[in-house]
Write a sequence for this structure.
């Protein structure tokens, strides 16, 4: 059973003081239906990712809330949670539900409303993705966890602070034409280096923002896919887990769950890293984009920065990465995985805001916490891969 | 960090005294303690293990923007401490944040971790101090 993505939509990423998570999720869902050219009544089930709506807005039971607000009751609605990978997790569950033969048309969505609470409370809520008893109690933050990875990586491989700044410079440049981006301005090395220290050596412009936003996509079985124009086919889907706490990892300079999820996705898709035309990777903090290059097989260990220095991951380069601006330009944690998949969908059907010419195979990489959960999806303009 | 009296109370032995666990089957040591050996699984035999707390800084950061409950402490250094008896643990490194370096030796010190507001409990536990 092959499964395709036939439409998607997202809200603008930003601080939506006047909108609730209900409003945002309904807006994203309606945009996805519109994009796919179907009606709400065509949807057989919903899977929705949200990381911590309980901490952010005091609201659990997001599946029911989303279908209620959208007028889609009584279809089955399931919330999926895997920290910042919740969106991709919902997507994978939707894919597996169609593959099981149970449904033909499913919506996978994600949403997070992060600005209703104060900054320190939001940082504390996000730390729920780490080890509450042994990382949070040390006063750690997610910027702090990735800062420790950055410092270890810089020492081991000689990455300089200025080279690390190439990640936000590229992603801000890519986001300039994205109307849904939270920020639309270019940044320079000087601006990155002079932005406020958040957790040494990471600075403000290395960090993804606190964002409100939602995103949704429509997945369909190959039985009904011919009714849609430009289906994007799922070629491979991989998921892996690792220790919850960073301090329990053998190495601070790689994310093994990313590598294992990627290996599974590549094997299922029957493609190698060299075949990827465009990718969205989880650049929650600058260092993670470089780790992702290496974990996903785009670069050898310690050589990830070369892709930035040589502009290979810019649009126009060998393998453009984060062509919508990535997480730097909006990271509503539960929605991020879906937002990434929408960008790949636009790239493969040729209507991206910053288009990669002739893109036929795309990859989306989304991780939760400091890499305790990782998902990798590979997509193509033609069906392929093994889907039993 | 969740404000919880039972949680702090439950972890007192570990947090105050660095009592972790060890698997008698494979000799792997765990801090934070695990009560199930991931390698030996049901063949494992878990027993308490006293860590000295001495070790070295595997990596570290200086937190400038803190989560709720820690705002008044910024800037503060947090590191991953590689313990001499094996395994690593996250912890605050006390003193001058500019003196912290990767690889430096540290020893444990008993400190106040945070307070749950004016009338809440005061949480204590181990932090680390640079040797010498």
């Amino acid at each position: 059973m092959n499964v395709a993505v036939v439409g998607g939509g997202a809200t603008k990423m930003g601080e939506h003081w006047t909108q609730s998570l209900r409003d945002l999720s309904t807006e994203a869902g309606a945009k996805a239906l519109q994009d796919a050219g179907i009606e709400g009544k065509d949807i057989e089930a919903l899977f929705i990712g949200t990381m911590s709506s309980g901490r952010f807005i005091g609201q659990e039971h997001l599946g029911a809330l989303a279908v209620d607000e959208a007028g889609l009751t009584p279809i089955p609605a399931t919330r999926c949670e895997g920290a910042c990978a919740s969106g991709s997790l919902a997507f994978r569950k939707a894919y597996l539900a169609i593959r099981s033969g149970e449904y033909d048309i499913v919506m996978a969505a994600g949403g997070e409303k992060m600005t209703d609470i104060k900054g320190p409370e939001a940082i504390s809520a996000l730390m729920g993705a780490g080890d509450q008893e042994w990382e949070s109690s040390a006063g750690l933050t997610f910027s702090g966890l990735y800062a420790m990875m950055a410092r270890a990586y810089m020492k081991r491989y000689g990455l300089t602070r200025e080279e690390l700044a190439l990640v936000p410079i590229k992603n801000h440049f890519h986001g300039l034409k994205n109307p849904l981006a939270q920020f639309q301005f270019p940044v320079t090395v000087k601006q990155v280096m002079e932005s406020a220290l958040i957790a040494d050596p990471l600075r403000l412009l290395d960090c993804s923002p606190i964002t409100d936003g939602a995103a949704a996509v429509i997945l369909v079985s190959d039985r009904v896919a011919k009714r849609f124009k430009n289906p994007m086919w799922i070629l491979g889907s991989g998921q892996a887990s690792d220790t919850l706490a960073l301090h329990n990892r053998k190495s601070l300079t790689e994310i093994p769950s990313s590598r294992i999820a990627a290996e599974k996705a590549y094997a299922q898709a029957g493609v190698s890293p060299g075949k990827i035309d465009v990718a969205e990777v989880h650049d929650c903090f600058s260092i993670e984009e470089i780790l992702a290059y290496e974990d996903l097989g785009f670069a050898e260990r310690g050589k990830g920065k070369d892709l930035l220095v040589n502009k290979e991951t810019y649009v126009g380069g060998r393998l453009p990465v984060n062509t919508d601006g990535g997480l730097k330009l909006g990271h509503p944690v539960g929605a991020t995985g879906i937002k990434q998949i929408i960008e790949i969908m636009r790239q493969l059907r040729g209507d991206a805001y910053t288009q990669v010419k002739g893109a036929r195979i795309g990859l989306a990489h989304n991780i939760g916490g400091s890499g305790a959960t990782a998902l990798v999806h590979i997509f193509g303009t033609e069906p392929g891969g093994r889907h039993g | 960090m969740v404000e919880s009296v039972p949680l702090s109370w439950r972890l007192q032995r570990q947090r105050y005294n660095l009592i972790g666990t060890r698997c008698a089957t494979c000799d792997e040591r765990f801090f934070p303690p695990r009560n199930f050996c991931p390698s030996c699984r049901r063949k494992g035999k878990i027993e308490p293990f006293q860590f000295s707390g001495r070790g070295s800084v595997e990596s570290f950061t200086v937190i400038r923007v803190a989560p709720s409950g820690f705002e008044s402490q910024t800037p503060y250094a947090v590191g991953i401490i590689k313990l001499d008896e094996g395994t690593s643990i996250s912890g605050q490194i006390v003193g001058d944040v500019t003196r912290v370096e990767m690889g430096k030796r540290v020893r444990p010190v008993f400190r106040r971790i945070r307070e749950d507001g004016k009338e809440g409990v005061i949480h204590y536990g181990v932090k680390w101090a640079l040797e010498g």
Summary: Residues 24 and 45 of chain B are 5 Å apart (CA to CA). The longest helix of chain B spans residues 5-10. Chain B has a mean pLDDT of 94.
